[in-house]
Amino acid sequence: MIGGTYMKNFPHLFEPIQIGKTTVKNRIFMPPLSTNLADKGYVTDALVEHYSNRARGGVGLIVTEVTTVEPTYTYLPGDMSIYDDSYIPGWKKLVDAVHKYDTKILSQLFHPAYMAFPVPGTPQLIAPSNVGPYYAKSAPRAVTVEELHVLVRQFGEAALRFKKAGGDGVEIQCAHAHGLLGGFLTPLYNKRTDEYGGDINGRLRLTLEVIREVRKQCGDDFIIDVRISGDEYSEGGLTLNDMIYVSKQLEKEGVDFLHVSGGNTIKRGSSMPAPGTSPAPHAHASEEIRKNVHIPVATVARINEPWVAEELIADGKADICMIGRANLCDSEFANKAREGRTDDIRPCIGCGRCLTGIMFGKPIACTVNPSVETNDIDEADVKKKVLVIGGGPAGGSLCSEEAWTRGCALREGERTWRTVKTCSCAYQQAGAMQGHQVHGTASE
To answer: Within 13 Å of residue 96, how many CA atoms lie on the same side as its CB?
Structure first.
């Protein structure tokens, strides 16, 4: 029985959770992951399909990718926007598609500041101070206090538009020394001496003003989540002790839950852990923060198996698990976990292909899920016989699966279909296919 199976194996993971005034059906949340599927900031059918597939797959709550709140600075060419009312109809279509599966949805509001994409015609980038990333070709300018007041209002107006589209809330991105708010919070970028700089209270001021404005415009029944780095792991950066203090202030300001990540964009590999990283590398931070607040706390990064998420929640490391790349690899991750079909989950190998392509303006791609954008593999117009050369995980699982779905007859070059199936199972259980190549040859 499906219900008995999931309640027996993962009772904590599939227990509903109260977020503010909203009940979420389970504790598998999907964090923001850029797709480059928007069209000049507008929601596309591809985006609707991408997110609704994860909702249909059983995720409790989705946080969308970066959503810019004003028109001057672009984060990535294919990212989403909501800086005027013309965006509302597209967002409503997306929200309705996700709500169809009883999944909640938040938009991650963001200003890229000194991390904006160099679109031709973009003015000098802004930052807390005249300090930018190590790879910047020129220094940004310090944003003025008057400009900050305008930006605070723009965050609030963007949140209200999302609420008008039917959205459940917003995430305020302050993690990773990333973008405007993350830059203001970290001493690595914020060298100001006015009311928005100096000590931790000055550096936190802008974020608190944004939260206050969003709450003012959207009311108490609208979720506000703040994403933070529990520790930047960098000399001179934010520490766990700093972020415990910050978390307390965020709770006092009325934030409904905290999304605790880690690292920053300065120290490579700290914010997006590489293959071989232990599961949930930021769980020590979420655990300590959780001890000091009374709102739900989420952890994130390399949580690729349901039992890992279950133990994190059962052991008090977090109340929620943000499971991102694993949901890209298999949009049915949550349903398969709920039904006890964990061996059928297509595993994430942490290769980072989902990130590297979008940095060059390409749509999202995945090494182990060739249909990551839409979940669809179209039936071939012309049926062919396909020889799969190599009975390893790549040949056995990827090439053969796609060919089979497209209606082509298969012959496996090393042994038999049983070998292919065995290798596919081994691939799923081991979660490792690095070093293997896919070789497919079509004939006739």
So the answer is: 10
